[in-house]
Specification:
There is one protein chain. By secondary structure, the chain is α+β, with helices and mostly antiparallel strands. Strands 1, 2, 3, 4, 5, 6 and 7 form a 7-stranded mixed beta sheet that branches. 19% of the residues lie in helices and 41% in strands. It has 2 helices and 7 strands. The protein has a single domain (12-147), classed as Nucleoside Triphosphate Pyrophosphohydrolase (Alpha-Beta Complex). The longest helix has 16 residues, at 132-147. The model has no long low-confidence stretch (mean pLDDT 93). The chain has helices at residues 52-64, 132-147; strands at residues 12-21, 24-30, 39-40, 43-45, 67-82, 88-103, 112-118. Strand 5 and strand 6 form a beta hairpin.
Length: 149
């Protein structure tokens, strides 16, 4: 049986995390299709019975070995990929969270070619997922807001 997320009959819910540590954000580069070579945030699909917070903590741990504290929603993206015939090949709604690094060192798993801490200004010129810079900027705002309350 193939991947039900390929040519789906419905959108899939996913989460990602803009993880901040010492003024930098963790940016990963995908090792596999469909986003092979693209710089983005760690994350993945929400599993049945899992809360959004549980999903983002699990996905980050699986992909990078890091322990994080999700703080607030930093935005969302809709990823709709069509094939040459115009059929929907992939459809994800991704909720991106602002998160604090708690423990661990980034160790990319099989899905990631690279994981590195970057200052947000370093995103310019990289091939990234759509809206990545805006999500990262909003994550820094949300994390700063959470410190003041």
């Amino acid at each position: 049986m193939g991947d039900p997320r390929t040519y789906p009959d419905r959108p899939y819910l996913a989460v990602s995390a803009a993880i901040v540590r010492d003024g930098k954000v963790l940016i990963v580069r995908r090792a596999c299709a469909p986003a092979q070579g693209i710089h983005t945030l760690p994350g993945g699909a929400v599993e049945t019975g899992e809360t959004l917070m549980e999903a983002v903590i699990r996905e980050v741990r699986e992909e990078t070995s890091l322990t994080i504290e999700p703080v607030a929603l930093a935005g969302h993206r809709e990823v709709i990929v069509r094939d040459a015939a115009g059929r929907v090949e992939r459809h994800f709604v991704v909720l991106a969270f602002a998160a604090r690094w708690i423990a661990g060192e980034a160790a990319p798993g099989e899905e990631l070619a690279e994981a590195r801490w970057m200052h947000p200004s370093m995103l310019d010129g990289l091939q990234t997922t759509e809206g990545l810079a805006e999500i990262v900027a909003e994550a820094f705002v949300r994390l700063n807001d959470s410190k003041q309350h």
